[in-house]
Every structure is written in C-alpha cells, then in structure tokens.
TrEMBL record, chain A:
Any one cellular-component term (Gene Ontology): plasma membrane
Superkingdom: Bacteria
Residues that span the membrane, as ranges: 20-46, 201-230, 250-280, 300-321, 342-361, 367-394, 415-440, 460-485, 513-532, 544-564
InterPro entries cross-referenced by the UniProt entry: ABC3_permease_C
Membrane topology: Multi-pass membrane protein
Subcellular location: Cell membrane
Keywords of the record: Cell membrane, Membrane, Transmembrane, Transmembrane helix
UniProt keyword annotation of DNA-binding present: no
Main localization (coarse): membrane
Name the UniProt record assigns to this protein: ABC3 transporter permease C-terminal domain-containing protein
Domain ABC3 transporter permease C-terminal: 212-324
Length: 581, 241
C-alpha cells in the first residue's frame, strides 16, 4: 500500500510535463476503450438483429407432403415470407395461417393474426398513411390497431407486415419473391424460434471481421499508451533503483500508476461511448439505423472493458519496465541495442503463407482468428523492418537530419515502430478492404438483398476505416508527443548548441515517414494478399479509390500529427536551462 | 592538436576582447538573477566563474552565449551585437562561433561518439565523410583512441565529457562555454578532463568561460571572477595567481 501511495505522489509530483504524459495516456486509453466498447457492441447489435429476425426463418415441420395432406403432426402454422421494393426501401411481408391456435406467436405479436388481419410495423404504418393508398393487399390500418412490436424488427425503420390467412388461401400458398429474388413457396412450420436468417448470419460474420480489424490496432495502440507512462517515468525509476528501491517496489509503483491512469481512461472511454451512442445508432446498415438498446452492451461487457483495459495496460507497462528493473543503470546507460531477431520475419512469413490454406472452407470464427493473427504478425515484423530501414537510412544519410533519423530508427526500432504502427496497420485494413470492395454499385443488382449487402459493405468499410484512422492518427500524435517528452533534454541541449529547429523537425519527419512508407506499403500488400483468399485478386475501381484515399489520409494524418507536436518541441527546446527530471 | 601544453604561461593581459557583456540584467519574476554584470572575455583566455548556488552563474553564461536574452544590457561578440539578434541568428551563431560543454547529457545517445563529434560540422554543411574524418582527428589527442564507434552509454563519464569537448571544439569556435563540465565526475577524473579542456582550448586559440564550484578547477584558468546575488563581486583571489 505504501508504494501505491508513493506512486500516487510520484504521479502528482511529476510536474507539468509529467501530468501531460499521464494526460496523454488517459486520452489514449479513453479513446481506445470507447472504440473497444463500440467494436464489441457491434457484434451484440448484429446478434440482436439476427435474433429479432429469426422468426422469419422458422423451422419447417418434419415433412412437407404436398398440398393433399398439409396437416403434419407438429406443424403449427403455414408461413410465407416475401419481399418487395417500396421506393428505395424494402418491404417484408410475412403471411401466416395458424394451424394450432395455441401455438406461441412470433415475437412482437400477442397472438397469431386472424385470417384477414394485417399487422404493420410502425414505419410501414407511417409509409402507408403517407401514401394514402394500398401496397398490394396492404391497406392503411385504422388508428389504434395492433402494431408489430420492436422485438420483431431488424431496425426501427423496417417495413414489415404480418398478414393473416386461412391455411388453404391461394394468396398464401402461391410462390413469391424471396430474399434473393427467387420465388419461394410457403412452408409448414413447427414454431417461430429458429436459427438466424442467412442474411443475418452474413452480417454477423462481417461484424466479427470488422471487430478484428478494429480491435487489433486498438490493442497495439493501448500498448503504446501504456509504454508512454513508463517511458515518461523510467528515468525517475532508474533513479529510484539507484537509491535502493527493490525491483518489486519499482514495478509495483509504475504499474500501479499506469493502471490508475488506465482505469480512469477506461471509465472515461465508457462515458464517451455512452455520449457517442446516439450518433452511432444513426449509422444505417442493413437498410436502417439501430434501436437504442442495440448499442447498449449491458453492464457485464462494460465491466469487463473497465477491468480488462487497466489490466492490459499494466501488463504492457511491466513489459516496458523490464529494462529498468534488470539493472539500476538500465536507462541511465544506453548501450548498443541488440539486433532484432529474424525469427520475427520467419513467423510472419509462415503465418501469411498459411492464411489461404488455413482459411479455405472453414467457419468465419477461424477466419477471424487467422486474420487477427496475420494482423498481429504485421506488428511483430514491424520493428524488425524498422531496424533494417534504420540501417539503410543511416548508411545512405548525407544530411544531419537523415543521419539522426537513421540512427534513431536503428537505436530504438520498437518505439519508432510505435509511432507509425497504427497507420501502417490501417494500411493492412485498407489493403484487405480495398480488395474486397465490390466493384458493382447497389443499383446494378437485381436482387434487393444483395444490393443492400453491397451498400452495407461500403458503409461498413467507411466505418472501419474511419475508426482505424482515428486510432492510428491519435496514436501517431500521442507517440510523437511522448517521444519529444522522452528526449526533451537531448533536444534542448542540441538547440542550445545551435541546432536549428528545422533540422530536428526534419529528422522527426524522416524517422516517421520513411518507415511509414515501407511498412505502410508492406501492410497494404499483406492485407490485399489475405483478402485474395476470398476474391479473385483484382481490386475494383472502388477498391482502388478506397486504397488511394487511405494512403493519402495516412500520410496526411501522420504529417499532421507530427506538425501538431511541433509547438511542444519548441517549448521543450526553448527552456533555457535543461534540467534532468 | 596536441593536448598537453604549458597553457598557464600565457600572458593573460594580452589578446583582444572577443566577447563582452555590458550592464547585463536578468530577472525571473521577482528573482533577480543578474543585477548589472560587466564581463569581458579575451581571445585565448580561460575565465572561471565561481560563486554560491543560485547566484546567477548559469544565467550569466546563458546571456553571454546568446541562449537567453538579457532584460537589459548588451552582449558583443567581436564587435557584433548578440542580444538583439533574432533566435535564428543567435542559433546560427551558437552553432558556428560557440562551443558548449554541459554537466552531462549533451551527447545523442543513439549516435556513436564520432558522429556526435561530427554532427556540428555536418550542420555547417561539411559532407558526412569529411566531417567524420575530421571528428576522428580529435579522439587521439583527447585520449579517446578506440572509442570512435561507441555509444555515449558505453563510455565512462570522463570519456563522455571528453567526447563533448571534442564536439565543442570541432567547429573551431571563438568561445567555449562550459557549465560545471566536471560536476558529474569524481575529483581525479574531473581534473583530468578540465586539464584536457583548458589545454585543448589553448591549442585552438579559443576562449573559455567555465562555471565551476571547484577551486582547483578554477585555478587552471587564467582568471577567476566571483558572482554573488547577480553581481560580480571581486576578481577572486585566483586571479592573482
Ligand atoms: N528559468 C528560470 N525560472 C525562474 N527562475 C530562474 C530560472 N533560471 C534561474 N532562475 C533563478 O535565477 C537565479 C540564478 O540562477 P542560476 O541558474 O543562474 O544560478 P547558478 O549560479 O547557476 O546556481 P548553481 O550553482 O546552483 O547552478 C536563481 O535564484 C534561480 O532560482
Ligand atoms: Mg548553474
């Protein structure tokens, strides 16, 4: 407890810059936690939609034996589901004939509709009354008639009608256009509880992939944020070690500090998510926006995020502290860094090579895991490549800025990688998505279900890429700022000795843009390669546009993040007396 | 470039004034750091600045070196007014005409020793290969043979300070400023480093302004002044040596 109190003091006593470091960590953790909650909740949201639409895909009765003897023992109703377009929206009509009056009705209805009864979803009721006329046999219903409950709707704006029939009504029995444009006949069903529809399953799978694409960069970002606190502290901690603090105490103090900040950040992130949820629920996917409840993950996942995030940050902090703990001189004495081991490259290549093999004809869960694995391997190989780039840059350096950049890349490839990892990994997402983006527009497709899916793929792409870029650029900004704070004494002394600010700035730019170019290109290629397992391998024009915009946004973001930290560099270097703190 | 030399045989009254501070005043909020300081530095002269902690020694050094603008007073380097220059100009001046040795931490940890020394030359436009070759020339005289490729973290404190001295001198500056350059070293090493610093300065005809708490270090210098409460009180006893 004593060391916790001490570390609290350390946090508060760290001065303005120390607090700035902690503040940056807090902000980083808050943003990641918010997006993490979002990424997790998206899955729940699609699960909810899948559940709510499952009644339209009910289990057939044991055997359908033609029209002669339709009354199977376990059949409770005859159901026909068909679709038609209303303007640019899709109308779902569910025709039902009860065979067993006591059968449990589908969600959203109190009882099965009587023959001739029409139950409309609220949105459809609105459309019909606006139209003032009928759509087929669907007429506007009088004020106060029964409405289809939300539990039966995919989204609040969905147009659904449930129409009651007699079991032998030819209107019910004649085949009509199903989900994908083909005519489907009515089905004898044994209840309304069932597996989600194929469309719902497709959305769930896409949501899972999107989650992986968002969560992996978030983990990397969170790790970077954790290191940030540690990096800010390691000098002081080395001093504490020199004074005689035991490794245990040092670890406990720092980790406690990092975790306190991370906990606050996670709570803030959840609050931010709560604030953003109303706006997020307006994103239209699957033909419409979301119920407020869809984007509420429930207390348990929130609790899990609030507890897991500080834990992850703590683990990451411990990893970052190894150097200080091993030797009291750890940080005070910087030595020639050991080379990055080539094992990283071998692992990376192996995983990438295994991807097409491992994902051929398996479930979406495996694909998601493999995708996450490849993604993490990009992060694994990153520092190695950065070190390599550093050596090349150093060798070729003609100007002081290039030399500084090259040496810095070689000296601490991990931290140099952290600055660009976010954006580079967004390159992976862009490469993956760029290749998967369908070249056709939704208008060119006959099947309204497919048209919607294509539209949604595009929306989802934009959401995932936007989130990725937000994370990446935030992380670039934060790491740029923290690396200035870490090196402020050196920068200040260089400035005192007359090094122009532009040289320092140019060096900083080179040390981010050179690895970004190489690794960004590399991860775009990796992303495209993994996507090739699912498509032919030729990107569509739209995909190329996505890629181009991503590349431009990535570079612009990193340059902007660096430029934003320029005032910090200036303030750090104009402090007349550099004091080690 | 040979280091050892009978530097204290110089006649300290000779040489023209290189750098001069006139009526320098500087305050930080209500703290008066400098309260009217007159100080000239002659060519090839080693000037020690002593005085109690907080008396304004570092502030004086920073004003003279164009790191800080004094609130009042003037600084002249070889007839040019320094204190009125813009930051860019002063920065260029520091890079070309001045050299700096601080207590510690002035070497870039990721650069090998020779590149740390070569950096000021490269900043001045000397091509890299030539700059590094020139930098290497400083290692032997300073007793650093074999240390060219080492990182600052792999050098002892004294070795690192000697690399810093080489870096300060490599551009052949008019004045070298040193703020407690031996403050982080033990006495023996400190004296060794100081010895090298003073002799190297003399060899190169530069002037030296060194802030120190060590009486013996001050005694290596040609002249000692003492600062108290932002004023030069006396040419201290050492000056009579
Ligand atoms: N940046 C600053 N902000 C506020 N006060 C300052 C600043 N720099 C110096 N001072 C104050 O100015 C006075 C002179 O400081 P200076 O650093 O010149 O002392 P010094 O003689 O070098 O001391 P030391 O021997 O301890 O290094 C001190 O009272 C100090 O507190
Ligand atoms: Mg001082």
């Amino acid at each position: 407890m004593n060391s916790i109190r001490l570390s609290w003091r350390l946090l508060r006593g760290g001065g303005r810059k120390g607090l700035l470091g902690a503040g940056l960590t807090l902000a980083a953790v808050a943003v990641s936690s918010m997006l993490l909650v979002f990424a997790v909740t998206v899955n729940f949201a699609f699960d909810g939609r899948a559940d709510r639409s499952a009644w339209r895909n009910p289990p057939p009765a044991a055997k359908v034996t033609g029209k002669k003897s339709p009354h199977k023992k376990d059949a409770v109703a005859v159901q026909a589901v068909h679709y038609q377009a209303v303007g640019d929206r899709m109308l779902t009509v569910v025709r039902l004939a009860a065979l067993d009056e006591r059968a449990t009705p589908p969600p959203g209805l109190d009882r099965l509709p009587a023959p001739g009864q029409v139950v409309l979803s609220p949105a459809l009721a609105e459309v019909l009354s606006g139209l003032g006329g009928a759509i087929g046999d669907l007429r506007p219903q009088p004020e106060g008639s029964v409405r289809l409950g939300d539990e039966a709707l995919i989204h609040p704006g969905e147009l659904v009608a449930v129409v009651g029939h007699t079991p032998d009504d030819p209107e019910l029995l004649k085949p009509r256009k199903g989900a994908h444009g083909k005519d489907v006949p009515a089905t004898w069903i044994k209840g309304f509880a069932n597996e989600p529809t194929n469309d719902a399953i497709a959305y769930q799978a896409l949501a899972l992939i999107a989650t992986v694409l968002i969560v992996v960069p978030l983990l990397v970002f969170g790790g970077a944020a954790a290191r940030l606190t540690v990096a800010r502290r390691d000098q002081r901690l080395a001093a504490l070690r020199l004074v005689g603090a035991t490794p245990g105490q040092v670890v406990l103090m720092t980790v406690a500090e990092a975790m306190v900040v991370a906990f606050a950040g996670a709570v803030l992130g959840v609050v931010l998510y709560g604030a953003a949820a109303p706006a997020l629920s307006r994103i239209e996917i699957g033909g419409g926006p979301w119920f407020a409840g869809d984007l509420w993950p429930g207390p348990l996942p929130l609790l899990a995020v609030v507890l897991a995030v500080p834990l992850l940050v703590g683990v990451s902090a411990v990893a970052g502290l190894r150097r200080v703990v091993v030797s009291p001189l750890g940080v005070a004495k910087r030595e020639t860094p050991p080379g990055m081991r080539a094992v990283r490259v071998v692992v990376f290549l192996a995983v990438v090579a295994a991807f097409p093999v491992r994902t051929a004809g398996v479930g979406v869960g495996v694909v998601a895991v493999m995708l996450g694995l490849v993604f993490l391997c990009v992060n694994l190989v990153g520092p190695w490549v950065v070190a390599l780039i550093g050596r090349v840059t150093t060798r070729m350096a003609r100007t002081p800025a290039r030399l500084l950049a090259g040496r810095r890349l070689t000296d601490d490839p991990r931290s140099a990688w952290r600055t660009v990892s976010g954006v580079a990994m967004t390159g992976f997402v862009a490469g993956f998505i760029g290749l998967l983006t369908p070249g056709i527009t939704s208008g060119e497709v006959e099947d309204p279900g497919v048209a919607m899916l294509i539209q949604d793929l595009k929306t989802g792409t934009i959401v995932v890429l936007t989130v990725s870029f937000l994370v990446a650029i935030a992380s670039a900004g934060i790491t740029a700022a923290s690396s200035i704070l870490d090196r402020r004494q050196t920068y200040a002394l260089l400035r005192l000795a007359g090094t122009p600010l532009e040289v320092l700035d140019r060096a900083r730019r080179a040390e981010t843009l050179i690895p970004l170019t190489v690794m960004g290109g590399g991860s775009i290629a990796t992303g495209a390669f993994t996507a090739m397992s699912f498509t032919g391998g030729v990107p569509s024009a739209d995909g190329l546009i996505v890629l181009g915009v991503s590349v431009a946004a990535g570079f612009a973001g990193v340059v902007a993040a660096g430029a934003l930290s320029r005032p910090l560099l200036r303030s750090v270097t104009t402090e007349p007396v550099p004091r080690p703190d | 470039m040979r280091a050892a030399g009978p530097w204290n045989t110089h006649d300290k009254t000779q040489g023209s004034v290189v750098l001069e501070g006139r009526a320098l005043e500087k305050r930080f909020g209500s703290t008066v750091a400098l309260a009217g300081v007159e100080q000239a530095v002659r060519q090839g002269e080693a000037l020690a600045v002593m005085g109690p902690s907080g008396s304004g020694k570092s502030t004086l050094l920073h004003c003279l070196a164009g790191i800080m603008k004094p609130d009042a007073g003037e600084v002249h380097l070889l007839g040019r007014r320094v204190d009125t220059m813009g930051e860019r100009e002063r920065s260029a001046l520091r890079r070309t005409r001045f050299g700096f040795v601080f207590q510690f931490g002035q070497l870039l940890p990721e650069l090998p020793a020779e590149e740390n020394v070569a950096l000021p030359l490269m900043l001045g436009g000397v091509p890299r290969g030539q700059a590094v070759r020139q930098a290497r020339g400083w290692f032997a005289p300073l007793g650093l043979t074999g240390m060219e490729g080492r990182r600052p973290g792999e050098l002892s404190g004294g070795q690192a300070q000697r690399v810093a001295i080489a870096r300060a001198l490599v551009t052949r500056p008019a004045v070298v400023f040193a703020d407690e350059p031996t403050g982080a070293l033990d006495q023996t090493t400190g004296h060794e480093v100081m010895n090298l610093l003073v002799s190297a300065i003399k060899e190169n005809g530069a002037a030296l302004v060194v802030v120190t708490h060590d009486r013996q270090v001050a005694d290596w210098c040609d002249r000692v002044v003492e600062v108290r409460d932002g004023r030069i009180v006396t040419p201290a006893a050492g000056a009579a040596r």
